[in-house]
Amino acid sequence: MSSKDSDSQTKAQADTDPNETLGYDFFPARAGHLETDPEKEKHWYGKFWSFIRTEQNKDFINALKCQHRVIRCFEENLMVRLLLGALKSKGCEVKLSRHVSCESCESFTNGGYDSINKQIVICSNNTKKNNTVCNVLSHELIHAFDDCRAKMDLSNIEHLACTEIRAANLMHCTKMTAISEGFANLWGKSQQQECVRWKARNSILAVRNVSKEEAEDAVDRVFDRCYPDLEPVGRIPRNPYLDGRRLYVEASLYGYTEPPVVNTQS
């Protein structure tokens, strides 16, 4: 996506900039500073209710519910299944217990892709609806697919911009979504592209210590190359849920086979 020298320079800046966290600060368990206090909610109901109400156990219960929702997405959501099949066809089969983790995150974060550990993070304290979990999972699976086929370096802002453009184009700025958010009318291709640019820019700003202008410049540099890349979906969905079955069938044209029954064992 960029020259070797550019890659090295960008990575060096990320490694030396003490304010650059690459988004890991949104996931306390991964940043190594998850703070809990088993005693802080203790009250007259006694030790049992104190135990139940501790933050650790809230997190545990949220994680269990999240894992159940993720399993449902693996089994029932056709967009998720399409992406799982595409990853498997590229030699990157997704195993639930190894590659998807339900964790507590900062209040405004729904999920993320950890390119170092090759894991998708679903924020169990923030994503509590099945559709939301499936949507987040699909978004992050697109990042995983890009990493699988192109070996992304997310410390390189151009790599980050490209995968965010693709995720926005395939998942968030569908025609119906773009219209509902005021970016497009029924014939407005240019407005749909503006939606993609806006989503990609904001995603970069959320995880990188850069200015709005730097984020927009990164999106502009790779947009013409990354926006037309619709693999593995093949088209911009009008609605990922309504078009799911058609997209799933069309995926066979790319050689993406149906993923196997969910295996929760590592």
TrEMBL record:
GO terms for molecular function: metal ion binding; metalloendopeptidase activity. Transmembrane segments: none annotated. Keywords: Hydrolase, Metal-binding, Metalloprotease, Protease. It holds the Pfam family Peptidase_M76. GO terms for biological process: mitochondrial protein processing; mitochondrial proton-transporting ATP synthase complex assembly. One of its GO terms (cellular component) is mitochondrion. It is an enzyme of class 3 (hydrolase). Its EC number is 3.4.24.-. InterPro entries: Peptidase_M76_ATP23. Residues 1-23 are annotated as: Disordered. PANTHER family: MITOCHONDRIAL INNER MEMBRANE PROTEASE (PTHR21711), MITOCHONDRIAL INNER MEMBRANE PROTEASE ATP23 HOMOLOG (PTHR21711:SF0). Belongs to the peptidase M76 family. This is Mitochondrial inner membrane protease ATP23. The lineage of its organism: Eukaryota, Metazoa, Spiralia, Lophotrochozoa, Bryozoa.
